[in-house]
Write a structure and sequence with these properties.
about 800 residues, eight-stranded mixed beta sheet, six-stranded mixed beta sheet, Glycoside hydrolase family 3 N-terminal domain-containing protein
């Protein structure tokens, strides 16, 4: 194969390397100079692992793929390097050196000197050995605080860029539809507005650091039947449009995300990876997205092996390209020889290759990878002698004190106090019985995409790489005068009852019992939470409920603490625990955050991003149910949650009053303004989370009983009051009508100012007037809040 056309260049620099020319001009010139093989090479990645001694990466041998011969591939070029830091433990400085040397090899091997885009996972921090493990996304949702999530993402992005990474595979914008799904911990919650606002903040932070944020999983992955991973997703068009798509709309329009990863699932028989109406018609033609669409790992091959809509690899590649997928990840398969042969014999038109390539090269140009002064040396290694790799070991710190301080702030804001009879905060207890499988387990704070749980478990002889104090450690520091006895009781999921007697004895000898229960994160059945770790029911795993019930029978007050990746039904504990503290895999500073809540050093302000079920088998647990999803006289199953979405207690009290509505009527293109006073009537500072829910009593299609349309955190000192004002545009009342378009209908609405989905404090009934109005992705997403000091009583 030969180059297509001659291209204008200057004696000094090829046109495509000239940063003073428009990106589109540079890209078109480069495409015109490339052979078909060189074009295709930019559209796939190779899964690699950084060398532990700083040498070049070696291809990762995955059991789903054949071995890759880099020497054979690199003369044509390479689009992406998959997870050079996230495949095996490697010192960050030596990993950066390894990536540097590999990029030098890539650029010297292809005739245009184009480096690869290096991508990594960053669902709970940079998934690299020795990097800070932040709280999982479900904890981000529990903060109800986009600002702290934005700052966290910025820190994560800076660490990634410092060692030569360009793209992060996060955030997950799937909305929880069934809490039995193993990947609930990776989501932000069960409400699309919460997912959209928190997810958009994460995108903004990552992109501000120069990292390409990748939205996952587009779209419908979380709607799988029975909560099974990679299972059929029987969602209707309205569920997809009104529940699952809005977070992606928001993150693209307001977050500036530059990449989207297609979902594994199909919608009504059409897999996302081959859905042209989704990946091109909606994403690009309607929403105007101009970034790259990357494949979820092996997703293009799955068109043949799992979905059965392609007869061979070339057909799978052609279907994905036609639909709008630009890059095959994690490694070359269908986009390699099968695609080259299909282009050569005319089965796949070269024009679809060029379309994807234009987007890939455009992104590389914006990243500076086509500039003449591009250097493979990342910021962390600038000015450093690279000739002595061993001297570099330990030089790059990805778990700095400022990272851990930020992780602590997120973790503290994410702890949710579910119930409390006054036992908390603990007042200098003399004897504490610390019981349960997660009481002294260091990794109990980590999610499945943290490096130690995702990769480190496969290397048991390698140190974990970060400091992970157990709850036993942090309680000893929090209560230095207390006698703390520890009893395992039972394992997370082993069903062992033999240690329960010892645990009960410890409880009877104590002043207070702290029962630390929950999950173990893992992959594909190696944990109780995580990818491929789906639950048959929402009962606590193993024999943990037996242990909890026995402790409740001990006669000693029990504080139940959950370190988990999903909500669980807690049986008797809902009514009989002295207190329940919920934490969703809170990261490196998680146990300090929990200890601070138990002692009262921290006043909890987290709110539930997912409902906590009353029973283990009542599904769905999401609060976004229509009237038929509520408790009724014609079914013996009561789906009412034990604790609803948005619920969370504090150690102070707040009074809400003086609701005012500027106008009770507005047109279907207008807005309402509500205001109220929130006052801290307790004796200590605290934060209230004011939530705004919309109830549409009569609509042309069935609506959820209520849905979140706004929220704000209100920090208050004792006795302090603030006047909180919210402007509610009619657009937030929009939904997908019978004709398939998003509309705003005239009629009455209830605007509920609430402490949770089950605790409305003030309600305004308002009316939209005028004609039905059609809106689209440019609609107003938010009901913005403002706050100002209120007059003192």
């Amino acid at each position: 194969m030969t180059a297509n056309v001659a291209v204008e260049t200057t004696p000094e620099i090829p046109l495509w390397n000239d940063p003073d020319r428009p990106v589109a001009v540079r890209v078109d010139a480069l495409i015109g100079a490339m052979t078909p093989d060189e074009k295709i090479a930019q559209l796939y990645g190779v899964w690699v692992g950084a060398s532990a001694n700083g040498g070049e990466v070696a291809p990762h041998q995955h059991d789903m793929e054949e071995a890759v011969d880099l020497d054979a591939l690199l003369p044509a070029g390479l689009g992406q390097l998959t997870r050079p830091f996230g495949t095996a433990p490697v010192d960050p400085a030596l990993g950066a050196l390894s990536l540097l040397r590999t990029q030098s090899r890539i650029t010297s091997a292809n005739r245009f000197g184009i480096p690869a885009v290096a991508h990594e996972e960053c669902l709970a921090g940079f998934a690299a050995w020795g990097a800070t493990a932040y709280p999982v996304p479900l904890s981000w949702g529990a903060t109800f605080d986009p600002d702290v999530v934005r700052r966290m993402a910025t820190a994560i992005g800076r660490d990634m860029r410092s060692v030569g990474v360009h793209q992060g595979l996060a955030p997950v914008l799937d909305v929880v539809r069934d809490a039995r799904w193993g990947r609930v911990e990776e989501t932000i919650g069960e409400d699309p507005y919460l997912v959209g606002t928190i997810g958009t903040a994460y995108v903004q932070g990552l992109e501000s650091a120069g990292i390409v944020a990748t939205l996952k999983h587009f779209v419908g992955y979380s709607a799988s039947r029975a909560g099974r991973n990679l299972a059929p997703a029987p969602m209707g068009a309205r569920e997809r449009a009104d529940v699952l798509l809005p977070p992606f709309e928001m993150a693209i329009r307001e977050g500036g995300a530059r990449s989207v990863m297609h979902s594994y699932t199909d919608t009504d028989g059409v897999p996302a990876a081959a859905d042209e109406s989704l990946l091109t018609g909606l994403l690009r033609d309607t929403w105007g997205f101009d970034g790259t669409v990357v494949a979820d790992y092996f997703g293009i091959a799955f068109l043949k092996t799992l979905h059965g809509v392609a007869g061979d690899w070339a057909e799978a590649a052609g279907a994905a390209l036609k639909a709008g997928v630009d890059v095959e990840l994690p490694t070359v398969k269908t986009f390699g020889a099968p695609l080259a042969e299909a282009v050569a014999d005319g089965r796949v038109p070269e024009s679809v290759i060029d379309r994807a390539l234009r987007r890939v090269l455009g992104q590389k140009a914006v990243l500076g990878l086509l500039d003449p002064d591009w250097s493979p040396v990342p910021p962390a290694l600038e000015g450093v002698d690279l000739d002595d790799p061993e001297a570099l070991r330990g030089r790059v710190d990805l778990d700095r004190p400022e990272n851990r301080e930020l992780a602590r702030e997120v973790a503290e804001k994410a702890v949710v106090l579910l119930t409390n009879d006054g036992t908390l905060p603990l007042a200098r207890p003399r004897r504490i019985a610390l019981v349960g499988p997660n009481a002294a387990e260091a990794t109990a704070v980590l999610g499945c995409y943290s490096f130690p749980q995702h990769v480190g478990v496969q290397h048991p002889d390698v140190p974990v790489g970060i400091d992970l104090p157990t709850l036993r450690d942090t309680l000893a520091a929090e209560f230095p005068d207390a006698d703390i006895s520890v009893a395992h009781g039972t394992g997370v999921d082993d069903g062992d009852l033999s240690g329960i007697g010892e645990a009960v004895d410890a409880a009877r000898d104590a002043d207070i019992v702290i029962a630390v229960l929950g999950d173990r994160a893992g992959l594909f059945g190696r944990g109780t939470s995580g990818e491929g770790c789906d639950a048959e029911s929402l009962a606590l795993p193993g024999a943990q409920q037996h242990l909890l019930d026995a402790l409740l029978d001990s006669g000693t007050p029990v504080v139940t603490v959950l370190l988990a990746g999903r909500p669980y039904a807690l049986g008797r504990a809902v009514a009989e625990s002295a207190a329940i503290v919920q934490s969703f895999f809170p990261g490196v500073a998680g146990t300090q955050a929990i200890a601070g809540v138990l002692s009262g050093r921290t006043n909890p302000s987290g709110r539930l991003p997912v409902s906590v079920p009353r029973g283990p088998g009542s599904q769905p647990t999401t609060y976004l149910g229509a009237r038929l999803a509520q408790v009724s006289e014609v079914s013996n199953i009561d789906p009412t949650p034990a604790f609803g979405f948005g619920h969370g207690l504090t150690y102070t009290a707040f009074a809400w009053n003086d609701l005012a509505v500027d106008a009770e009527q507005a047109s279907t293109d207008g807005e309402f303004t509500l205001s109220l006073t929130v006052r801290n009537t307790g004796e200590r500072s605290g934060t209230e989370v004011v939530q705004l829910y919309l109830h549409d009593p009569v609509a042309s299609v069935v609506q959820p009983v209520q849905r979140l349309v706004g929220y704000t955190r209100v920090p208050l000192e004792p006795g302090e009051a603030r006047r909180v004002r919210v402007t509610v545009p009619a657009d937030v009342a929009s939904f997908t009508g019978r004709a398939g378009h998003r509309i705003v209908e005239p009629g009455d609405l209830q605007l509920r100012l609430a402490a949770s989905s089950t605790d409305a404090r003030l309600t305004a009934t308002v009316t939209l007037t005028g004609p039905e109005r059609q809106v689209d992705h440019t609609r107003r997403f938010h009901a913005p809040f403002t706050q100002e000091p209120a007059a003192q009583a």
